[in-house]
Amino acid sequence: MKYEWRKQEKDLYLPKEKPELITVPKHNFFMISGKGNPNEAEFSEKVAVLYSLAYAVRMMPKQGYIPDGYYEYTVYPLEGIWDLTESGRLSDTLDKNELIYTIMIRQPEFVTQEIVDKAFENVRRKKNLTLLDDVTFGPMEDGLSVQMMHIGSYDDEPQSFEQMKNFIKENNLEITTLKHREIYL
User: Fold this and answer.
1) pTM of the full predicted structure?
2) CATH 3.20.80.10 applies to domain 5-11+29-141+177-183
3) Distance between CA 137 and CA 139 in Å, rounded?
4) Which residue range or ranges hold the GyrI-like small molecule binding domain (predicted)?
């Protein structure tokens, strides 16, 4: 049976449209970091590299290699951790050129360094992706977090952030970082 994160991990990947408290456990990801406007070509190239690696792992059995512990699954969604440069934080308006980010795609538990190395080899052999060597593989753990589903344009995100800030205050919680994670569903 195919593992579908949309069904098995609803708490992480299908949050409510109002703030809620959750614990985000440690998972392994293909990750690539950068700075600048996500509407620029380089950002799209980084997304393409991540998906190339994620699908290289997913398709290994069709290419004759079945990793230990492999199970059929749906590729996880793109995620991003966002922050601003110091000058970006001091500005009254959002300058997307001042964004700092790490975008990533989670990998199933069976993915080992050996599998990662094979995925890199497969992608390198089939595609000429100049940013491939900028990708890392490793764990990410957010721990206790406040999340909510944002439906709408990116320009409307401040309203969702305001709801989360109010939730944090009402529940006597504390914001420990200005970074935030987005999951693109």
Assistant:
1) 0.94
2) yes
3) 7
4) 18-185
